[in-house]
Write a structure and sequence with these properties.
two-stranded antiparallel ribbon; 70% helix
């Protein structure tokens, strides 16, 4: 069992190491265009547009990761403190209950029958009380604010993603930047299924090629 656990854990560590080392290498390349590839007249403004856009995307991605962890931590604390607002409604003639999380769901479960009016009103009062307790603690802890910040970061990351992939790469590092983004976005995907191992291998190759002295790179 220990060997099996290690076989599952090692690829995750390896993937994260590739992402972090590649990010550090790409960060060092930002604004640095290979003089052997571009003359001064051909060099685009900003040095290397794809790398500049990658830098902005990477910053947005790291913000998403931070805000996601924060809102998940706060949500867990909220649920532990007051529970997620809901009421359990017994289903007639059945030995089970249905959870209702909104007033509309309560209306749907009870219907319009007059004999259910009192039970419906009580269920709504219970849900409103739970929601008020949730909202009060949420306001103190900042869960909703963290969630809004996360959503804003998601939108920014998506915008920078589109910008990056609409910009042609002008160097090996620019191509590597795009691959790095794909790998980072696919971090939660299976590590041993196509195309992830192949993309990681290509990323490693690009990193190795671009890190060679220019003379060796040209001979390759």
């Amino acid at each position: 069992m220990a060997d099996s656990d290690n076989s599952r854990t090692l690829p995750v560590v390896t993937r994260r190491r590739l992402l972090s080392t590649s990010a550090a290498w790409l960060a060092a390349q930002v604004g640095d265009v290979d003089a052997e590839l571009y003359s001064e007249d051909d060099q685009p403004d900003g040095g290397n547009p794809a790398l500049m856009l990658w830098q902005e995307w990477w910053a947005a991605h790291e913000q998403v990761e931070r805000f996601c962890r924060k809102q998940q931590r706060l949500e867990t604390a909220l649920i532990a403190a007051v529970g997620f607002p809901h009421v359990d409604i017994a289903v007639p003639d059945q030995h089970c209950a249905v959870a209702a999380f909104t007033m509309e769901e309560i209306d749907h479960q009870f219907g319009d029958a007059s004999e259910n009016a009192e039970a419906k009103m009580q269920a709504k009062a219970t849900l409103a009380e739970q929601q008020a307790a949730w909202d009060e603690l949420d306001d103190r802890m900042g869960y909703s604010r963290a969630k809004q910040a996360e959503e804003k970061a998601f939108a920014m990351r998506e915008e920078r993603l589109n910008d990056l992939f609409s910009q042609p790469a002008r160097s090996v590092a620019g191509v590597a930047a795009k691959l790095h983004v794909v790998l980072a976005m696919g971090e939660d995907s299976p590590g041993d299924e196509f195309p992830w191992p192949q993309i990681r291998a290509a990323m490693t190759d690009l990193h190795s090629l671009a890190s060679r002295p220019s003379g060796q790179r040209n001979r390759a």
